[in-house]
Amino acid sequence: MTAGRLTAALIARRSRIVLSALVLALGLAACGHKQPHPHFADDNNDGVYVDAGPITYQLQISRELNQYSVEDSQYVKGLPAGMSTSLGPTQLWFGVFLWAKNQTQEPQVSTDKFRISDTLGNNYYPIKLDTELNPFAWTSMKLEPLAIEPEPETIAANGPTQGGLLLFKLNTSVYSNRPLTLWILGPDDKRLAGISLNL
Fold first, then answer.
1. Which helix (H) or strand (E) holds 164?
2. What is the pLDDT of residues 28-80, one digit of tens each?
3. Which residues contact 99 (CB under 8 A, 6 or more apart)?
4. CA 192 to CA 198: how far, in whole Å?
5. Is the peptide bond before 150 cis (omega within 30 degrees of 0)?
6. Residue 41 to residue 36: CA distance in whole angstroms
7. Any residues with CB less than 8 A from the CB of 20 and at least 6 apart, and which?
């Protein structure tokens, strides 16, 4: 084989290798998780991000709480005066743990308005917790550019869920009316984003 033919064969072979690598890379990229809609997430949602106005929120975890367990008993502290941790036979405690980040270049305020809706249109609102008694409780905060909530090195940030708590008292009927949707609301109760919750 002449030098010219050898060079042409090597170039052709290298081209096939490069082309094969590109096809493989594209195939692997296609196998990745589909990006959710930036304002609504309805797949496997623990860890999902949604954009709600100028702030990005992440669902750390959502689950039924057992107020008699060591961990969960901390989450039902700071209830409003007169509200007991006791539940009726058709009620349950439900915790939603959120993280947020201001990804803009201006200070922004995180929301304190949320709602859970079931498939029948029943709505549930988070219980206002005393943050002096419950350091896990979510509160509206002014976030500087790139700041996060819960703030680093706080009990909520370093806790098992690494998120701020929204505590709900739900009816057990929600198990029949799934999926539940957490709505992140704006100042006029406008729905900014939604996340389908695991229950």
1. strand 164-171
2. 333 333 334 466 666 556 788 999 999 999 999 999 999 999 999 999 999 99
3. 57, 58, 60, 148, 149, 150, 162, 163, 164
4. 20
5. yes
6. 6
7. none
Strand partners, 96: 62, 166
Give me the pLDDT at residue 32, please: 34
Task: Name the helix (H) or strand (E) containing 40.
Answer: strand 40-41
Give the tens place of pLDDT for each residue, 116-156.
999 999 999 999 999 999 999 999 999 999 999 999 999 99
| 46 within 8 A of 197, measured Cβ to Cβ | no
Three-state DSSP string of 100-160: EEECCCCCEECCCCEEEECCCCCEECCCCCCCCCCCCECCCCEECCCCEECCCCCHHHHCC
Question: Is the Cβ–Cβ distance between 127 and 80 less than 8 Å?
Answer: yes
As a whole number of angstroms, the distance between CA 196 and CA 193 comes to 10
